[in-house]
Design a protein that fits this description.
By secondary structure, the chain is of the alpha+beta class. It has 5 helices and 8 strands. The strands form 4 sheets. The chain has a two-stranded antiparallel sheet with strand order 1-2. A two-stranded antiparallel ribbon has the order 3-4.
Amino acid sequence: MRRSFRHKMTIDSEWVILHRLAALSGIKAINYHCCINSCIAYTDNYSHHLRCPFCHEPRYGAGGQARRNFSYLPIIPRLQAFFQSPEMIESLAYRKRYIHQPGVLRDVFDSQWYQTLCQTKVVVDGVERPHCFFAGKHDLAFTLAADGFLLFNRRRGGPSATPLLLMNLNL
């Protein structure tokens, strides 16, 4: 597909893409250094490492720049923004107001998996909590799809992107 539509896509560089995305969405990417072979991100316990503890590749290139970066788009500010608007709060209540009719499949909330989760206690770090999944009126249900690809017709080692499609099922 990428080859089929190459003539319709103008991608200047990864830097340009990230800055255009930030300008259009109001979300700024957070960059983390990561191993050139994608073994780790240099965060938390690895933040002071100068070499990857798994493949032993150096973190920085000859110019002192990280050899590879991972760009992270934070979702928390977007979720917080949902709850600033009374109209959006009302829209998000769709899941809680939805009435399941056994034997009828009209929505993801009719699925067997969702119905099972609604009867399942939440377990955090091995400790069972007193509530079930999706018990709260403000709980949000999401579905996630991911797929990675290389940019700029590069083989291995070039810049890559992994689009994450996170869909809010409450809307």
